[in-house]
Design brief:
Shape: elongated
Strand content: 5-15%
Helix content: 40-55%
Number of strands: 10
Number of helices: 8
Structural class: mainly alpha
Largest sheet: 2 strands, parallel
Strand order of the largest sheet: 1-2
Radius of gyration: 28 Å
Distance between the termini: 29 Å
């Protein structure tokens, strides 16, 4: 497709795993119908230094494969060799970084093809191209601003750019579990404070004042881990997910823990719902 005008072009049942789109014009007007095949991401776990890496399954462009193969330092494959499923596919200019597309160029290709899918009312089909666009923007050190890249990293880590429901829900369960543990350790008082009514008696008149002491936690560590306290902490965490106050008496530390969970956990739930909607939207 390099150098071609894709306006009003219709491709049906085409294998585009090794197709190069860089340099094409009007890619946002192309129509892809039928069984269109793109190159998948590498399978299995890989090692980056001491860090294990596993790539999400999605459809990718050949240009992203070429860039990642170059930056990963993969060896040049033998001529005519079948591409390995565990590796990125090397490009024709694998050893020449100046002729290998950079993330900014690949992000533009993903953006145009995503618009083509969206214009064709194929929102789920456009999801992988939105993911690829965000991936390239996250790795782009020139076109993406310094302040934007950390936001993209956080968006990717928490929910896969709003497209990985399992990742967002896993973080939600982890956040709720941490909230329960912190509340049991520091947030729930040893017992609910009981109101006390006191007042002086002057002649035939009495002045009464009812006050409730602040919740306090004086019990030892062994007494903080009980099923009753776990049930109370779980009730607080579940209410935080739906942005409600549990009404449970909490210590000062527990109040701040609940405030934090009421801000973070509904956000994770919303990201999970957004990811599910992105995959089933029509």
């Amino acid at each position: 497709m390099q150098g071609a005008d894709a306006a009003h072009l219709v491709l049906t049942d085409t294998d585009l795993a090794d197709c190069l789109f860089s340099g094409a014009f009007h890619l946002d007007q192309i129509r892809l119908e039928g069984r269109i095949t793109f190159a998948p991401t590498p399978t299995g776990w890989q090692r980056r230094g001491i860090r294990p890496v596993r790539f999400s399954r999605r459809r990718t462009l050949a240009e992203e494969h070429h860039w990642r193969a170059h930056t990963a330092g993969q060896p040049v494959p033998a001529e005519g060799a079948v591409p390995e499923a565990r590796l990125w596919r090397s490009g024709p200019h694998h050893t020449d970084p100046a002729r290998t597309p950079d993330p900014e160029d690949v992000a533009a290709l993903y953006r145009q093809l995503r618009k083509a899918f969206e214009d064709g009312k194929n929102e789920p089909g456009a999801a992988d191209f939105y993911y690829g666009e965000c991936e390239m923007r996250r790795h782009d050190t020139t076109g993406t601003t310094t302040g934007e890249r950390p936001l993209l990293w956080g968006y990717w880590l928490l929910s896969g750019y709003g497209l990985r429901a399992s990742r967002a829900l896993t973080w939600l369960v982890a956040a709720m579990s941490l909230t329960v543990l912190l509340l049991m350790a520091f947030g729930l008082p040893a017992r609910d404070p009981e109101p006390a009514t006191t007042g002086p008696l002057t002649g035939s008149k009495i002045s009464l004042n009812t006050s409730t002491p602040d919740p306090a936690l004086h019990s030892g560590w062994s007494q903080r881990w009980s099923w009753a306290r776990a049930e109370k902490a779980t009730r607080v965490a579940v209410n935080s997910v739906v942005f409600r106050s549990s009404g449970q008496n909490l210590t000062t530390v527990g109040t701040y823990i609940e405030m934090t969970s009421r801000l973070l956990e509904p956000t994770l739930l919303a990201l999970g719902v957004l990811a599910i909607r992105g995959r089933i939207k029509r």
